[in-house]
Amino acid sequence: MNYLDGFVAAVPLANQEAYLQHAAMMAGVMKEYGALRVVECWGDDVPEGKLTSFTMAVKREDTEAVIFSWVEWPSKDVRDAGWQKIMADPRMDPANAPMPFDGKRMIYGGFQMVMEK
Predict the structure, then answer these.
(1) From residue 66, how far is each of 14, 21, 39, 101, 102 by CA, in Å?
(2) Which sequence spans correspond to the domains of the chain?
(3) H helices within 1-117, ranges in order?
(4) Counting Cβ atoms within 10 Å, is residue 64 exposed (0-12), middle (13-18) or buried (19+)?
(5) Predicted pLDDT at 97
(6) Of the four, 21, 36, 50, 58, which is 20 to 30 A from 28 by CA?
(7) pLDDT in tens, 73-101
(8) Helices (H) and strands (E) in the chain, counts
């Protein structure tokens, strides 16, 4: 089965267009290095939790939205090799591609697919 990278972050509402441009650039680079698909979602129904929630996890402020995204790779090996190339690519230098959100509050991880229906 394919392998997924998942991301959750808080993005200032005022930066939605900048975020989408940044995400489109990142998607192009990721696909260049082996990603099959990149999906970006802008939260519009993300409830506050009492113990846990997306909003609490990223410390969302009132002027921010939660984004949820994932990258689909054909395998973990392709993903690992792809990320090495992505991180070495000069287009990823923060001076060239500053993130339009606080990356310190982003949650991410790699996930082995165990079921798809």
Answers:
(1) 13, 17, 14, 11, 12
(2) 3-112
(3) 16-32, 54-57, 76-88
(4) buried
(5) 87
(6) 58
(7) 999 999 999 999 999 999 999 888 899 99
(8) 3, 4
The single-letter code of the amino acid at 28 is G
Residue tagged 């790699």 (tokens): 110
Phi, psi of 59 (to 5 degrees): 55, 50
Contact 54, 8 (CB under 8 A): yes
- Both tokens assigned to 26: 């990142």
Domain 3-112 is found in CATH 3.10.129.10:
no
The first and second tokens of residue 105, run together, are 């509050």
Distance, CA of 1 to CA of 114 (rounded, Å): 7
Pick 111 or 93 by higher pLDDT.
111
**pLDDT tens readout for residues 17-68:** 999 999 999 999 999 999 999 999 999 999 999 999 999 999 999 999 999 9
Nearest 5 degrees, angle CA 60-CA 12-CA 43? Answer: 65
